[in-house]
Amino acid sequence: MEIRVLAVIDTFRVGGPGKQLIAFCKAAPAYGMTVRIAAFLRRPLKTSPFIESCRAEGLPVRIFEERFPFDPRLPSLVRSDLVENRIDLLQTHSYKANVIGALLSSRMRREGIRWVAYLHGTTNENMKVRLYYALELWAVRHADGIVPVSEAIGRVVAARLGRSRARLEVISNALMPEAVPDRQIREQARRDLGVSGDAVIIGVVGRLSREKGQGILIEALARLNDQNVLALLVGEGPDEPELKRRVVQIGLKGRVRFMGYQNDMTAIYAGMDLAVIPSLSEGIPNVALEAMGRGIPLIASAVGGLPDMVADRKSGLLVPPGDADALARAIRFLLDHPAERRRIGEAGRAAAEARFSMAQRLKRVQALYQRLMAPRVFHG
Questions:
Q1: With 0-12 CB in 10 A as exposed, 13-18 as middle and 19+ as buried, what is 99?
Q2: How far is 37 from 48, CA to CA, in rounded Å?
Q3: 3-class SS at 87?
Q4: pLDDT tens digits, the chain, 380 residues: what are they?
Q5: Residue 189: CA atoms inside 13 Å, Cβ hemisphere, count?
Q6: Could you tell me which residues come within 8 angstroms of residue 29 by beta carbon, excluding any fewer than 6 positions away?
Q7: Which one in 32, 71, 163, 283 has a CA-CA gap of 20 to 30 Å to 207?
Q8: How crowded is residue 221: how many other Cβ atoms within 10 Å of its Cβ?
Q9: φ, ψ (nearest 5 deg) of residue 252
Q10: Furthest-apart CA atoms within the chain: distance in Å
């Protein structure tokens, strides 16, 4: 029996939530779910990296065109799609999609359409972001199901939602099937990056903003004073000018490279020796799963869902958030102990495969959706 799902997401780049949704949609039919993706797109744009990634995977995307911010037509556009395509369940990602779900919730409930809101976490970056998060938490109170993507997010949301806790079920992000690059691929990737054979490449992937902690990594590198280390900072964001200024100020020019946004991370991951997540706040970051899935040893701040993912000194190293000295010591330990570096990378891959498989995630989503749909007659 089929459950027809419309998955609405507000994303332009192919970030963690977008990657997870694409993988979910591709695998969902084997679990009795047909999932259509819908995304918002602001005029005059006709496409986005996320939309193009969906199309490259053979996934059509319904585009809800926005004329301007807070376009009041959006709820009616989503509502029309639900009716025209006989959707059984609306699945929403991001505050905008979740608010639209709340605005449609009463009518959907009368018509037997269920709504599941996914929560990917937030940051305290600025007042605007905090306001959006408060609005999102108000919205998801009206959902039939609330799915935080990590235990840490679930604990925060449960405390904030109070009586809505009964509808909350944590379903973690899934590990993507990643190939561990062989020696030839790795060497070619490093040549393409212009890196000498024995240099240690540290990868930091994420938006360049305070809560992601790239500034902490830069301070840690200054303490290491190791000329044979190159840090690749992958991403864009408001802190980029200040981070670049700090790199020059403390004499790290040439040891920190700003890579910008990368739609395809294959070559960068292939060349990495260490992955570092120096964040001050997190859910379950997709980069952690991507690194661990490739056997790259991970050093991460002990925040959000990361301690649930990483067993310290076993499948990765955990450090206190915001502590540049502790981060420098962790990096130094793995630089000085290559055998331990290999062991932690292998253990991280095994742990991720055991705990975060896509099959496990799909089974849990399937069970949740079937429970929510139980009072209805399925299309089949």
A1: buried
A2: 14
A3: coil
A4: 799 999 999 999 998 899 999 999 999 999 999 999 999 999 999 999 999 999 999 999 999 999 999 899 999 999 999 999 999 999 999 999 999 999 999 999 999 999 999 999 876 667 887 888 899 999 999 999 999 998 888 988 999 888 655 589 999 999 987 767 788 888 999 998 888 778 999 999 999 999 999 999 999 999 998 889 999 999 999 999 999 999 999 999 999 999 999 988 989 999 999 999 999 988 888 899 999 999 999 999 999 889 989 999 999 999 999 999 999 999 999 999 999 999 999 999 999 999 999 999 999 999 999 999 986 545 55
A5: 18
A6: none
A7: 71
A8: 24
A9: -105, 10
A10: 66
Round to whole Å and give the CA distance between 110 and 133.
27
Taking the complete model, does pTM exceed 0.70, yes or no?
A: yes
Identify the H or E element spanning 271: helix 266-271
CB-based contacts of 155: which residues, under 8 Å, 6+ apart? none
Phi, psi of 98 (to 5 degrees): -70, -35
Record the tokens describing residue 184, joined without a space. Answer: 């030839």
Question: CB neighbours (10 Å) of residue 375?
Answer: 8
